């Protein structure tokens, strides 16, 4: 399965989290994953879940793994 970064975004517990757990063939819905903020959460792949705010710790970790500056920062 194509995965451009070593993490995936998943909605769980009222936020969008990032995980490096392998993506199951059927998707993450209902699956427990370990997040970049070190929580164990059960994925809620509902439509509303994708509108939840992003976990700031996972966002920081995802930017680090992707090698992209966070929050509009630029490299000089």
TrEMBL record:
Q: Does the keyword Cytoplasm apply?
A: no
- The signal peptide here is none
Keywords attached to this entry = Metal-binding, Zinc, Zinc-finger
What is a GO molecular function of this protein?
A: zinc ion binding
Cite the record's Basic and acidic residues compositional bias ranges.
14-26
The cross-references to InterPro entries, in alphabetical order and at most eight, read: Zf-HC3
Recorded superkingdom: Bacteria
Where in this protein does the record put region Disordered?
1-27
Q: What is this protein called?
A: Zinc-finger
Q: Which organism is it from?
A: Saccharopolyspora flava
């Amino acid at each position: 399965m194509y995965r451009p970064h070593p993490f995936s975004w998943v909605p769980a517990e009222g936020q969008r989290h990032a995980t490096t757990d392998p993506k199951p063939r059927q998707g993450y819905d209902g699956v427990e994953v370990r997040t970049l903020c070190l929580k164990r959460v059960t994925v809620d792949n509902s439509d509303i879940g994708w509108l939840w705010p992003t976990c700031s710790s996972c966002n920081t970790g995802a930017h680090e793994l992707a090698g992209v500056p966070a929050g509009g920062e630029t490299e000089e």
